[in-house]
Request: fold
Amino acid sequence: MAGSTDTSAPTVQPPGPPLWLLAELTYRCPLHCVFCYNPTELERTGAELSTAQWVDVMRQARALGAAQLGFSGGEPLVRDDLEELVQEARRLGYYTNLLTSGVGLTAERARRLKDAGLDHVQLSFQDSTREMNDFLSHTKTFELKKRVARIIKEHDWPMVMNCVLHRHNLPHVGAIIDMALELEAEYLELANTQYYGWAWRNRDHLMPTRAQLEQAEAVVQSYRERIGNRCRLLFVVPDYFEERPKACMNGWGSVFLSIAPDGLAMPCHNARDLPGLQLPDVREHAIADIWQRSQAFNAYRGEDWMQEPCRSCSERQKDFGGCRCQAFMVTGDAAATDPVCSKSPMHERIVQFREQAATRRQIPIVFRSNAAAPAGDRNIIKKGSGIDAC
Amino acid sequence: MQPDIAPPSPAYAAPPGLPQLSRRLRLQYEAAQTRWVLLYPEGMVQLNDSAAEILRRCDGRHSVADIVRELETLFDTQGIAAQVQSLIDEGTQRGWLD
Reply:
């Protein structure tokens, strides 16, 4: 072609900007939730980034285009530099989200975070009852969370209440919605358990029945019709009960940049254990290089990595082949079709997980352990996208 | 059970006379995307140019008619009232406007 000197490499669309930066400030957490998505082998993670290192990460990611910033963990309030980080983030122009269990959000810290410019707080609950909340988190935190919800409203933050759903609390979904209304949450995220980390380990104990899910969804729908926009109810799809996978991360390396407490950059906050990924460390590489050129962020970007049945599937641009972590955990191949998809040759395994869970509960439920370096309390990060267009 | 809790905010009313962007949202130009976006808890709406021009004027001081007039002058065009009203309706329904 005239004027073209390089025809050897295939045309690769350069990636767009990372729109979402997830700053997992720490894996430390006072709670011990049975469905936490944090790594189960915390002793394998390294030392936490310093304040200055986080500031550097935020500046670089903002310069690339990241606009949404989630402070998560673990419990981010464990870090006493949270206010400083929020202030810098806000100055850089991020919309700042704090994702918290509520533990540590005193009136004093709330005031400082408000002064720093924090835009929004997501507060996790485990159930509408003290007994279940405190059992699932293995802490006495129910009343504290209700106090924290009031502190959040007193500081005029929009509040997302998050509750991870599973067979133990799906029958309470109406009461959970009532609690969100009572506490004046603007959004309630009813997050059906996604099976990663500790939730994968406790899968059989958490797995609901299809009847439970259908009843809960009907309750949610009837509330939606009654309450209108007063509180928006998000019912995160229970993908094990679906025929098509979720559009995980809106596609690998597409919009989502997650930085783990020890500085590893990941295209997905669960990617740590995927084989063959050379996860780059933000202390050694610039964020732009990580995002655009690293092996890890390009491994499943676009479609070239896809196998059948994804490769020729008409829906591949809609769901991007689903979740790489789920593909690896269930099939042993991270490049396989997400087995949630009924077109996957391994879909039968998901069906077995669903149908055999009730017969496999002899092993006790495992609480998130603090033995090595305690981790987070929830699987609140939807493996979705949060990006909309108008 | 908790007498100190204020009554819940009412559902959104019909489109107001002077549309105002909800204080719960932030409208911001993103150079990396070369467009305006609406930022809200854990989400972002990527706006096309006309939606952005309309929403930027939803400041509680302009009526819908004011906005139509201003944009028709600015872009030297006519007959955009229906388009503006439709965006205002959608914004109201989606909770972007107070």
Remarks:
- The longest strand of chain B covers residues 35-40.
- Chain B has three helices and three strands.
- Chain B touches chain A at residues 1-2, 4-6, 8-12, 24, 26, 28, 30-33, 37-48, 51, 90, 95 (CB under 8 Å).
